[in-house]
Fold:
Amino acid sequence: MSRIGKRVIPVPAGATITLGPVVTVTGPKGTLTRTFRSEVTIAQEGSDLTVTRKGDDKTSRSLHGLSRTLLANMVQGVTTGFAKTLEIIGVGYRFQMAGSKLAVIAGFSHPQEFEPPSGVEIKLEGANKVTLSGCDKQAIGDFAAEIRSIRPPEPYKGKGIKYQGEKIRRKAGKTGGKKK
Structure:
């Protein structure tokens, strides 16, 4: 039995769940909808959700923990939400808002502009830090990865866009050779 899959999901007050093949979770932060595979069954007992698998084949076992985690992320997203912070390091590198778009100045000839997906909010915290927040964990992570991909941190000087708290593995630069 999956250790993650057999844990119950507590549903906080303020969140409502509609079960079926398509599960809808509604809360103060928004509404999320996801279709789950038929190999798993989702049941609500009081204020707890449980995910059980129908069979013991490999596909059902692999979907058990995944489905429970996806459902738990939906419940957490509509009640408390998710946030991811990006930092930019480098001389002249900065974030700016251009209307509703995020403009990233990162050493290119023109700023790179990103339109946020629906449900993702952008908050600038100075010129070097931006926070992405919303109720959909996957949308926030995908958008943050798209922004980071234009200038990932490099190992010699540490310049680039990184997640807050990310450790950059630094390398030693060239050492001068012996002169004859």
User: Anything to note?
Assistant: The radius of gyration is 22 Å. The mean pLDDT is 91. Helices lie at 58-79, 137-148.
